[in-house]
Structure formats: structure tokens, C-alpha cells
Amino acid sequence: MSDVKNVTFYRQDQQQKTLVIACPVQGSPELLYFGDVLPAATDLGYVYLSQQAAIPQGMMDKPTPMSLIPEAGRGWLQTPAVEASAQDRPTWAACWTLLDVTEQQDGFVIRLEDKVAQLSVALEIGLLPSGVLRQQLTLTNQGESNVTVQRLACTLPVVTQFTERMGFYGRWCQEFQQERSDWQSTWLQENRNGRNSQANFPAVIVGEQGFGEQQGELVGAHLAWSGNHRLKADYTAEGHRYLQAEVLYLPGEIVLAGNDSISTPELLAAHSASGLNAMSQQFHQEARDRLKLTKPRPVHLNTWEAFYFDHDMTKLKALAKAAADVGVERYILDDGWFRGRDNDKAALGDWFVDDIKYPDGLMPLIRYVKDDLGMEFGLWFEPEMVNPDSDLFRAHPDWALQLPQYEPALARNQLVLNLAKPEAYQYIRERLFALFTEYPIDYVKWDMNRDYTQPSGDIAPQARVQVEALYRLLSELNQSFPAMEIESCSSGGARVDFGILNFTKRFWASDCNDALERQTIQRGFSYFLPPEVMGSHIGPDKSHTTSRIHDVAFRAGTAMLGHLGIEWNLLDANAEQKATIAKWLSHYKQYRSVLHEGNNWRLPSADGRAQTQWALSQDRMQGLAVYSQLSMPKQAQTLPICLPNLLPEQLYRVSVLEHSPLPGHLMKALPAWWQQDLILNGASLSQVGLRLPIFDPESLVLIAIQAVPAAEKH
């Protein structure tokens, strides 16, 4: 580190990325650089001087720099990092003074204070081993009287050439839709749903004009939080560009007593100079570092679409047997197993096994699944919810998350349980612990099917503490039942983020199993999260959410791109369909290590009518490509697909594993190589590519790439 006029510089290098923070004695720390690695001998003082701008006419005599903790008190006229109020002192226009900087393994802790406001902040910032930038802000009330906090936001300055923005929107059964626009003014996303919701995935990407999957400089940012949030991408008159991310506090929600503190969630960001895929691969690695998976992702079968609430032991066992026969490895008993749960209007909260449907409890089914069939057993829960028609609500109506002064607002015939209320928290904890102790449950599908309304149990809002109570409950379950995995499901993909990923192993990305819709949903999901945490199931011939009909190859190949499962009553499948499914499950098991441990790419076609998902093992010796023809191509021929990052001189064998029906009405002849033993070097596959047959819309082909041993001749 070196000094330039009372400024100290702190540098960190990780995964070919460099982070440089400039810390003045007076004022907030500044992000001097975040991007591809700088030479070790770079003089940071001169870099800092090179970024000092001219002073325009008509503006502040001493312009406020773009900082990591923007200060209203020093003339920052955009959104500050901290907004707070108190009765006995000015806290709404803080001016920070540096206390100290502590270096730690993954970056720095920068502490500042304002003695007039009697506030202090600590900024944790640094590069994680994945190359992802992490920052988190903590605010402390150093005074004796209360401080009400309106805003506490992490801020990430970005370079001025980033003039295009990419975001996400959606709805139930159509999550993670992507949209892009020029970024020349303020963009704001606010989420007040209590959970992320399908409409407000907490992430944004900004970059240079025209950035794409394989080209362009950009930064992607994600707030690791499962509740209300605010994301902002802003542009100032001086030319500064920055991102902000925060928990959205409801009025009067956060009040700090003397010496109390509050922290933001983590803001995670990844920089790429070569397009969106490189950004995604950093986030994927960060997710894998947190997941710490110790075994391959087992094939699921979920009973929901097979039986809904109709639980019959004979049928449940028959479905389990059919599932095991085709290669399923984990059987999940969905909604309807607990007392009084015959429809979606009653019994949430009464977490006791239904002794009418299960007179001997769940153990006979569990033993059959685990001991006789060799599969794992999973169970569905919705612990955060309560039906008004339930024993729990009749006994404790005050445990619902609602304003008692008003009529409650129902959604899906249910209310949210107030986990911030100790008695309610303890009841749910006791019921879960009792069931997990009594039964050998390997997996929990943890659902959450409605948004928060009137999130309170008294007067003040309690949305934030609900999320924190959920995290605490999940943490306690993980500590007590470490071998049990938990899935985050929330009407499909309404609660997907790195915050809850710290406690769960899988997301149900959408309630939609329509393979065509899933192609877009899963592409959006993949920008920040890896395939092994994305639940993706083979549905029946006719989708129950869209009524579309797809061939098995299109359904199964689409499901291959995530954590594969089945959402289909196999008792209705004929012998040929079961054999086809068994073959696809065999391919998944053979290549899941490539998909779930290797690097993944999204490769769109030039005409925008097709896309290829490409996974390559870390040693670059084995790959898997799924080419999907989504709609009619603009030209008579399909366009070549090029598979990146293969070893240029290594020979690879190209094998077609499965494909949708080949349409004779579109082709007089297949490509010449289609039925031959094709061996090409990596450079040819990466730079020249492969010509594929002409497919009907909503079709796909599964292609394996395997390195040829040196001893094997061409």
C-alpha cells in the first residue's frame, strides 16, 4: 500500500481479478478498481490521481466523490448509503471519518464513524475464492437514544462505459424472464412481497453496449436476501454510474436502541471482460463453494402431479416401485400426508401424520421406499403457513402474521405464521424436530406459497425479522440433521437467492414443467445459479400448466439441464415410455458430474431461434451439449454450433446420444456425418463447429464429446 495526500490504498488479487480500495482519512472509502488483474507493479497512487476529474461550473466547489458509502452530509445528492433519524441529534446527513482498516483472508473491514451523529459503520469488502466480490455494511447506534433507520444500502460504483442494463421479471409459471434496455437514467426495482416473488429476482447486470453471452465487459450484482428489497442502477449528472442494493424497510420497521447494530445482506458481484458466461461461471463457483455437496444429485420423483391430495398406500407404493424400476433415486411424498389435509383449504399448521390415510404412520411407506427399493425418502412441508381452518389457528389466531386491527387478507386460503413470535416459532420448531426425529427423512421440500400482507403481529411492521427467523430455523435444522437436504420451493421460483442458498441445497425453479417455457426459465435461472441447484422435472405428455404436448426427448433433454426429476404418474406410462425414461435417466447419471462440477455455457444461435447448453468438465476432456430448436429457423438450414474452451489439439469423439424425432418433411437427407464415427480436434469443434439436422420447433438433440485416448488411432 502507498499514501497520496492522506489516502491509503488497499489491494487484493483473486482468480485473475484485482480489487483496489482508496481510503481517505475524511470521507468514505472509494472503489478505485474492480476488474481483470492489474500488473503487480502498478502504482496505485498515480492510478488514483488519473481519476481525479475537473470541476464543472454550476456545481459544488468541491465535488463529492463516488464512494462505497455515499454521504449526504458531504454533498452527495443521489441516494445515500445511510438514511436514519433521531430526536436528539442529526443522523440523516452523516459525514464519515476513517477509524481503521483491518485486512482479513477475503478482503478488508473498513470502520468509520460520525461523532456528531453518534453512528458508526463497518464495511466488509473483498474478493472471495471464486473471484466474486462480496460486500456487507453494518450500522451501529453509538448514542443513548433510539435511531430509526430508513435505509442501509450497499453501493457498487461501475465504470462509465457501462450503458446497457439487463434485468429479470416474471410471474407464476414464467419466472426468470430476461429484459434489456439502454441505461441512461435511473432504474429502480422494489419488492414488497415478503419473499423475492416471481416478479423481482434480486439481481441486475450492467455492461458495455451489445454485451452478450461470449463478448463484452460487464458486472452482475445479486443481493443475497429472501425478502423485501430495493435494487437501483443510477447515473449522475457528473457521469458516475453505480448500483445499490438493500433490504426495503417498511415505515418504522428498524429502530436501533443504544449500541444496537443492523447489517445488510451480502451484495455479491462478478466482473467479466468476456461476456455473460464468464460472469455466470464465477457465481456458479461461489454457489458450489457454499453448497459443499458430497454426493451426486439423485434423480427425484415427486408425487404431486400423480395424486395431488389423494393418498392411497397401494398407489403410493406402486408409484415408488415404478420409479425405482426406471432408475429414480429419491421419492418425495408431497402435500396431503398430514391431519385433515384433503384439499388446499385446511390443515396447514397441523403437522401431525394423518391417521386415517396412514393408520400405521409413515414408516411402512418409508421402509418400503428406503429398504425394499433402495431410494431416499423426502417429505413436503409448508411450515411458515397456517390455514384459518386449522386446529393451530383456532387455538392461536394471534400467531398469524397480520394486523389484528384489520380483517386479514387471505391468499390460497392461508395466512403466514408469525415466526417472530417466540411461541409460534417454538411450536413449528418442535413439530419439525419431532417428525425428523421419529422418521428417517432424507429430504424436505420446503414450500412457501404466498406473499406477506400486513406483515405484523401488533403495530410495527415485521417483514425483515420474518426472514431472519426463517434463516435461524433452517440453520437449527441443518445443525441437528446434517444429512438431511432442504429444497427451497415458493410457488415455484418465488424465493431463489444466495441468502437462502446458505441453508438449502436445491430450488424448485418453477411450477411449470412445460419444456418450452422451461427453456427460458432455466436460461434466466442460470445467470446466477448452477444447474445442480435447479430442480427440473420430466412432466407428462401434456403439461398441466399450459396444455402443450411435447415429445419425451424435448421434455427429458430440457430437464437434463438441471437437477433431474420426474413429475409424472408413471403408472399411466406404457412400457415404451418407461424404457425411454430409463434411458434418459441413465444418460443423466453418466453425465451429471460434467453438468454439476464442470463449467456451463449458454450458446444462442445467430438467428435467435435456437440455443445450446454446453457443459465441459474441469479437465476439458468430456462435454455434453443440448441443442434446442425453440422455433422455426429463419433459414432453411440449422446454423453450426461451436463448443467453446475445448483443448485445441486434443482429439474428441462426437456421439449423438438422443434426439427428438427427425422430420422427413424438412430434410431429404441427414448431414453426412450423422451416422459416422466423427472425431475432431478441439479447435475444429470450438472454431468451426457442427452442422446438425433440421429439427421441428420444440425439438432437441443430446450430444456427448469425449476425449480420445492418445493410444487410440483416428
Automatic annotation (TrEMBL):
The keyword Kinase does not apply. It holds the Pfam family Glyco_hydro_36N. The active site is at 447 (nucleophile), 511 (proton donor). It catalyses: Hydrolysis of terminal, non-reducing alpha-D-galactose residues in alpha-D-galactosides, including galactose oligosaccharides, galactomannans and galactolipids. Substrate binds at residues 172, 334-335, 412, 445-449, 489, 511. Keywords: Glycosidase, Hydrolase. One of its GO terms (molecular function) is alpha-galactosidase activity. Residues 27-255 form the Glycosyl hydrolase family 36 N-terminal domain. GO terms for biological process: carbohydrate catabolic process. Its EC number is 3.2.1.22. PROSITE patterns: ALPHA_GALACTOSIDASE. The keyword Cell wall biogenesis/degradation does not apply. InterPro entries: Aldolase_TIM, Alpga-gal_N_sf, Alpha-glycosidase_related, GH, Glyco_hydro_27/36_CS, Glyco_hydro_36, Glyco_hydro_36_N, Glyco_hydro_b. Belongs to the glycosyl hydrolase. This is Alpha-galactosidase. It comes from Marinomonas alcarazii.
